[in-house]
Amino acid sequence: MTSTSALLVIDVQNDFCEGGALEVASGSEVIAPINDMMEASEIVVLSQDWHPDNHRSFAQNHENCVPYEVMTMPYGPQVLWPKHCLIETKGAEFHPNLKTGFAQMVVRKGFRTEIDSYSAFFENDKTTATGLDGYLKSRGVKRVTLAGLALDFCVFYSAMDAQALGYEVVVETEACRAIDLDGSLEAALIAMKNAGIRVK
Ligand code: VGL
Ligand code: ZN
């Protein structure tokens, strides 16, 4: 018998697609393959980046800071982003072409003002859990496939946490697009392969 697997669709939201506040180049190209993958998956989970306006990861909330610079936070280095995925805004909504009806669970992350959350499992302090691990374990999931945005940030951190939590992990790169800040894409691909993640 094959083990139970889940598809984790990471942050396919308006702000990460073309014209969004933190646009990922060609971001919406992930939607068609993800819709097909969702239709064929037993368990589908969507993650949704979900920030209050005063979130500490936003460059505008720090004096004399610009987007994409790195700041040291109590939990470590943090890239400062343009404001994105604000709670209850259009930018935070899933892209209208994403077939969200396939999802059985939606996990929101990044809603605590002081901590950013790239991973769908743990916030950037690496200890505050989102609850996704408990959900997957209680459904008997052994294997996770990841797709979505952005490959070198939220998909990457989610995949690394999934691997560390003991899941068998596959990343479908054709159904991902990257931000690629200072070589972050190459670094992410190398780190995932070194960790034993299957990067397809
Ligand atoms: C993401 C930066 C900030 C992502 C979310 O979904 O990859 N990146 N917030
Ligand atoms: Zn974010």
From TrEMBL:
Could you tell me the Gene Ontology terms of the biological process aspect for this record? pyridine nucleotide biosynthetic process
In terms of SUPFAM superfamilies, this protein maps to: Isochorismatase-like hydrolases
Q: Where is the Isochorismatase-like domain?
A: 5-197
Q: Which residues cross the membrane?
A: none
Q: Which domain of life is it from?
A: Bacteria
Q: Which Gene3D superfamilies match?
A: Isochorismatase-like
**Entry's EC annotation:** 3.5.1.19
List keywords of the entry alphabetically: Hydrolase, Metal-binding, Pyridine nucleotide biosynthesis
Q: Which family does it belong to?
A: Belongs to the isochorismatase family.
PANTHER family named among the record's database cross-references: LD05707P, PYRAZINAMIDASE/NICOTINAMIDASE
Q: What is the recorded name of this protein?
A: Nicotinamidase
Native source species: Planktotalea frisia
Organism lineage string = Bacteria, Pseudomonadati, Pseudomonadota, Alphaproteobacteria, Rhodobacterales
Task: Give the encoding gene's name.
Answer: rutB_2
